[in-house]
Amino acid sequence: MQWTRRPESSGNRLTDLHQQSFATVAHLFDGQDPRRVETYRMRAADLLPRFPAAHREALVRALEAYMTRLGAPAPALAQLARLRDPESVAVVTGQQAGLFTGPLYTVYKALSAIGLAHRLEQALGRPVVPVFWVASEDHDWAEVNHAYVLDGADEVRRLHLTTHVPERQMVHHVRPAPAEVERVLEEAYRWLPDAPDKADVLAGIREAFLPGGTMAEWFTRLLWRLVEPLGLVVLDPCLPDLRQLVRPVWRRAISRREGVRAALDEAYAAVERLGIEPAVVRDAANTTLFYVDERGRRFVVEDAGGGHLQARGHSLRLPADDWLRLAEERPTAFSSNVLLRPVVQDTLLPVLAYVGGPAEIAYHALARGVFHAHGHRLPPLVLRDRVQVYPPSVVRNMEKWAVPDEMGSRPVDLVSPALSRLGIDRVAEAMAGFVQESERRWQAFADALADLGPQVAAIAHRQLEREKAGIARTEAKARRLFEIRHEAEVRQLRHIERWLWTDGSAQERRLCPLNIWTQFGLAWLGELPFWGDFTQPGAVYHVRL
Q1: Where is the signal peptide (predicted)?
Q2: Cβ within 8 Å of residue 43, ≥6 positions away
Q3: Which stretches in the chain have pLDDT values below 70?
Q4: Which residue, 174, 146, 139, 141, is CA-closest to 161?
Q5: What are phi and psi of 310, to 5 degrees?
Q6: Do 531 and 116 form a contact (C-beta atoms < 8 A)?
Q7: pTM assigned to the model
Q8: What's residue 430's pLDDT?
Q9: Distance separating alpha carbons of residues 49 and 210, to the nearest angstrom
């Protein structure tokens, strides 16, 4: 196995500035330069007074019960116990609870957080615990109910759960039917190429699902299987005991809503002054809170004027004091939006650093306003490690066709240029000659009979278009015959394209772990030495198996 590091754009302008030119955007991120060890040293010193022993004990007890119930491996529980240490801090990352853990980058986020925690523990000489925040509050089922794999012919296949989920319902409450889980696993077995570990991997995934369990719980068990020896605390923010600990956040979001709105206005304006479009659409009436009804459905809590707040799309409308009372008495009735969630994290956990994707780094520049309104500062933000995996078959085909490594950094059409070199352009040239001949012939027809009126030209045009359509169909058939004749070459090149840039999307953003997991296992991933290297901002790691 070999790997190389190359600096590449994240695809997000603000995140690229954060990575490559931090001084130009330091004011948007509270000066938290993620490349400097001193940043983390100062952050840790600021954090510790906010997390007394009683809070730590309540946090650990809640997570201990949850993780034990889900069968957490010993290394994960050992990491959790270290959060009792008054000197300990946490590196946090998170993702939605996607089918089969969702895209590969979910696993890369977890490994980035584990690696960063290890590096910072060595640098600071204090316990640093990696924590994965399962975004079970999200209510967009369509974003998490599917996963993509490549079949034996390198065609992209979409595996998905068809479980009906009511609109607005949080994933925390979604319980896939056992029959649905069995069906999607059978589809995975049918579509995935034959591989030594295919049956065992899918059997393990089946075992991780317990009838009556939730999507978030299934996701958590799978994530532990992928990183088990390394130790990872997993947190579901919807746990009732954790909601008790964040009641102050709900109360501040209500009582300080005018201050939150003003701080957000300033944060949005600061981003826009750089000529950058904010990563989250501004909703001025949104208090950053959701109301959660008894069925687990989320409704935006908005300012209704006159000292009242209302749940958008719901009949609930109450004076602000009643909402404050509800937050105190029933904190499970609230949930955070994307800009408040980091503040909830910062209240529950001693967050030394947050590991996020390109969009997350960018929207933290907006969340800065919410942080300030709640009396907090942003944590240092570290871009998750981006990884491109090259299976041996892809490496062989790249060498055979002299495809340079740089091609792995962007989507490229490899097939068309290769077919041109093999002579497929002869088909287009021949068809172009037929088109020219048809145009000449029907123009001559129109000219010869022009005295009969303008209808003649129209007739000639219609006939020409019919012939051109027929020629186009013939050309497509001829091209297909050419491709069949050179099927081996086309298959090898498409194999490269589909593995590296699955249907035009980066491998890590489209494929779930199943193809790699079943063919090569995943233990080698945790052994790679680059995870969480905060001194190498903006790097993409290209790994040849």
Answers
A1: none
A2: 32, 89, 352, 353, 379, 380
A3: none
A4: 146
A5: -140, 155
A6: yes
A7: 0.91
A8: 87
A9: 40
Q: Which residue is it, tokens 């009511």?
A: 166
Looking at beta carbons, which pairs linking 403-409 to residues 24 or more positions away fall under 8 Å?
403/496, 405/4, 405/542, 407/496, 407/500, 408/500, 408/542, 409/6, 409/8, 409/540
Q: What whole-number distance in Å separates Cα of residue 477 and Cα of residue 487?
A: 15
CB 486 within 8 A of CB 480: no
Backbone phi and psi for residue 46, each to the nearest 5 degrees, phi listed first: -70, -30
Q: Are strands 351-356 and 381-383 parallel, antiparallel or unpaired?
A: parallel
Alpha helices for 195-246 (secondary structure H): 198-208, 215-227, 240-245
Question: Terminal CA-to-CA distance of the chain, rounded, Å?
Answer: 5
Pair of tokens at residue 178: 């056992």
In which residue are the tokens 């209500």 written? 254
Residues in the chain: 545
φ, ψ at 209 (rounded to 5°): -90, 125
Amino acid at 272: E
Per-residue confidence (pLDDT) for residue 406, from 0 to 100: 79
User: For the stretch 380-397, what's the b/e string if a residue is b when 16 or more beta carbons lie within 10 angstroms of its beta carbon?
Assistant: bbbbbbbbbbbbeebbeb
| CA distance linking residue 295 with residue 273, whole number of Å | 42
Q: Which residue has the tokens 């969009």?
A: 359
Per DSSP, 90 falls in state E
What are the backbone dihedrals phi and psi of residue 143, each rounded to the nearest 5 degrees, phi first? Answer: -80, -20
Location of structure tokens 């979604």:
174
How buried is 298 (Cβ within 10 angstroms: 0-12 exposed, 13-18 middle, 19+ buried)?
buried
Question: Regarding beta strands 308-311 and 317-319, do their DSSP bridges make them parallel or antiparallel, or are they unpaired?
Answer: antiparallel
Q: How far apart are CA 407 and CA 410, in angstroms?
A: 6
Element of type H or E holding 372: helix 358-373
Place of tokens 């009732």: 240
